[in-house]
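@channel sequence for tomorrow's demo:
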Amino acid sequence: MKDCENLATCGFLRKHMEAKTLACQGFIRQYCKGDKQGDCKRRTYKQEHGAAAPDDMLPSGQMLAEHWQ
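structure tokens (generated this afternoon):
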């Protein structure tokens, strides 16, 4: 399986990787490089809207709560 084409430019990962490395690595393993690529709501959002999803949108489609940041 190929890596997601948005992996290098994903706003979510770019914004949160440093502070939330373990959580982001889990998302990468499942959604960016794993079998949940087709379930990534960030990817779907970009396809439907022609623009990147908000940086605080999780791959599951949920928005991050203020306390996570």
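heads up for whoever presents: The chain has a mean pLDDT of 91.
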